[in-house]
Design brief:
Elements: H1 11-19, E1 25-29, H2 35-38, E2 42-45, H3 50-58, E3 71-74, H4 84-94, E4 101-104, H5 106-115, E5 118-122, E6 131-134
Parallel strand pairs: 1-5, 2-5, 3-4
Antiparallel strand pairs: 1-6, 3-6
Helix pairs in contact: 3-4
Length: 140
């Protein structure tokens, strides 16, 4: 057991985070996301909702300092509804970085997921609980 690693971070996810370089992207997907259709590097975290997984991951990595929007959320398809509480929870986790979020169209999100380093399938049951984070450099 390691000190300081959130309990919802599995050994497989810890390895993925350690292997990622700056600029690599990680998808935190809701339970509805077709992860295995888009990426071959998938790890499951079925017990954790998206905001909790985001919070745990951000304790271990930096967001990319060199881009305006290192966090991307899937935009709601016109006519669909999302849970505003979910967005509020994500923004609370992000704190001051909540202003560095971009919303991208569903199919553009899927294309990003194909190129992502990995996809973490969370236990998030609310729709549109999909997040992409771009890893930054850990400065001394």
């Amino acid at each position: 057991m390691l000190k300081g690693v959130p309990k919802i971070i599995s050994p497989d996810l810890l390895k993925i985070l350690a292997m990622m370089g700056h600029g690599d992207e990680l998808v935190i997907a809701d339970a509805h996301f077709p992860a295995y259709s888009f990426n071959s590097n998938v790890v499951r975290a079925d017990a954790a909702p998206s905001p909790a997984m985001l919070e745990a991951i951000l304790k271990l990595i930096e967001l990319d300092q060199y881009v305006d929007t290192p966090v991307m959320l899937m935009a709601t398809v016109p006519g669909d509804k999302h849970d505003p509480e979910l967005i509020k929870e994500i923004n609370t986790v992000l704190g001051k970085d909540a202003e560095r979020v971009d919303y991208i169209e569903r199919f553009a999100f899927y294309e990003r997921a194909k190129k992502a380093f990995a996809v973490v399938v969370s236990g998030e049951s609310r729709v549109y609980g999909n997040i992409i984070v771009k890893k930054g450099v850990t400065l001394p």
